[in-house]
Amino acid sequence: MCFLFIISAFLVFFCENCETADFSFAACSCAQCSLELLEDNCTEIIGHIIISLESQMPPYEMIEYKLENMQKLTGCLTIANSGFTNLSFLQNLEIVEYSEIGVAASCRTYANTITIAKNALLRDVSALKNLKILNSGENTEYGLYLVDNPSLCLEEEELEAFLRFDKFYAPHFRICHENLLNKTYCRLDSLSFFNHSNLPENCQVLTDSIVINGSITFDLEDSLNSTDFLDFFFFSNATFQERLNSIQEIFGNIVVMNSDLEKLDFPNLRRIYNFQLLRAPPK
Ligand SMILES: *[C@@H]1O[C@H](CO)[C@@H](O)[C@H](O)[C@H]1NC(C)=O
Ligand SMILES: *[C@@H]1O[C@H](CO)[C@@H](O)[C@H](O)[C@H]1NC(C)=O
Ligand SMILES: *[C@@H]1O[C@H](CO)[C@@H](O)[C@H](O)[C@H]1NC(C)=O
Ligand SMILES: *[C@@H]1O[C@H](CO)[C@@H](O)[C@H](O)[C@H]1NC(C)=O
Ligand SMILES: *[C@@H]1O[C@H](CO)[C@@H](O)[C@H](O)[C@H]1NC(C)=O
Ligand SMILES: *[C@@H]1O[C@H](CO)[C@@H](O)[C@H](O)[C@H]1NC(C)=O
Ligand SMILES: *[C@@H]1O[C@H](CO)[C@@H](O)[C@H](O)[C@H]1NC(C)=O
User: Fold this and answer.
1) Membrane spanning segments where (predicted)?
2) Rounded CA gap, 113 and 76, in Å?
3) Which atom of ligand 5 is nearest to the CA of 255?
4) Residues forming beta bridges with residue 144, ordered by sequence position
């Protein structure tokens, strides 16, 4: 797979500190040469920045040196399959405006404004703390797409900031310092759904959806796993209801179908954020 970092003569006009204003860039389809060709100290970049497999990338220092002054990106950003632990090279990024015209044409194929996916070692995205404006427009599927970064956790404040962006997508996210927080976040081991048999006790926040499909049957195994001794004998919809009572927030949705439930209460639910597919992906 060839890495693409698209740069053109366009860039010159948006690179504020460029010494040679008439320097003209060639469109380049190779990371090593294109990032190195990127003028130093650019504060604005137009194009599709793709950062992927380390073996196809210039050294981290080079990426950081070339991108750390970037305050505005017009186009999109894709960080996938990288070996990065953090995104410190984005620490000055304040504005990202989605575009798929000209040098940013390839953004159309990714459909997200910022994609951060499948980065096995990525631990924190705190470098995005200065990102204030994320304009995704109508054509994008997602604004900030954070998926399948198994080492990543989000601070609560980061989560709140990201939730303010249009089309934020991070199902099954993990929250940082869980045991220091005032509320209990419940998350499944893999991307799946909570239901009556796997919903733990005393969850205040669920980071996966609840899906009940079919009639609810309680089996002995569910009861055995309960920490409440009485549940061993009386595990029932009442117990399930008790578990629903503690829920205050759900990052996902509630689906109840084909069920014979007469009643299902969420007495303390105050926020539900549905990571919904907003637009059919481009063909
Ligand atoms: C980039 O910034 C550094 C330090 O601010 C400066 O020394 C260097 O000349 C600049 N490079 C360009 C191409 O403007
Ligand atoms: C960020 O990642 C780079 C490259 O992996 C590393 O050199 C640097 O120490 C990291 N910074 C922090 C604060 O973890
Ligand atoms: C922590 O939780 C308790 C009990 O739910 C609540 O009274 C208190 O205000 C919370 N503290 C913070 C800092 O949210
Ligand atoms: C509950 O969800 C788990 C995993 O999400 C699934 O394996 C299990 O079959 C579900 N149970 C029922 C009764 O739907
Ligand atoms: C609901 O359960 C039925 C029967 O087990 C199954 O065929 C169907 O695919 C399920 N639907 C969803 C949305 O899980
Ligand atoms: C009950 O606990 C056992 C052992 O911890 C686990 O393997 C099993 O999946 C649990 N069952 C349910 C329904 O949660
Ligand atoms: C409890 O669950 C059973 C099915 O297991 C259902 O028939 C009954 O209506 C439920 N009761 C309530 C109050 O939802």
Assistant:
1) none
2) 5
3) 13
4) 114
* Tens-place pLDDT, residues 208-262: 999 999 877 766 566 566 655 555 555 566 778 889 999 999 999 999 999 888 8
For residue 223, with 0-12 CB atoms within 10 Å meaning exposed, 13-18 middle and 19 or more buried, which class applies?
middle
CA 188 / ligand 2 centre spacing (Å): 29
Contacts of 32 (CB under 8 A, 6+ apart): 56, 57, 58
Quote the pTM value: 0.79
**3-class DSSP state of 63:** helix
What are φ and ψ of residue 139, in 5° steps? -80, -15
Domains of the chain: 2-170 (3.80.20), 185-273 (no CATH)
Amino acid letter, 160:
E
C-alpha distances in angstroms, 89 versus 41, 63, 157, 170? 12, 7, 21, 22
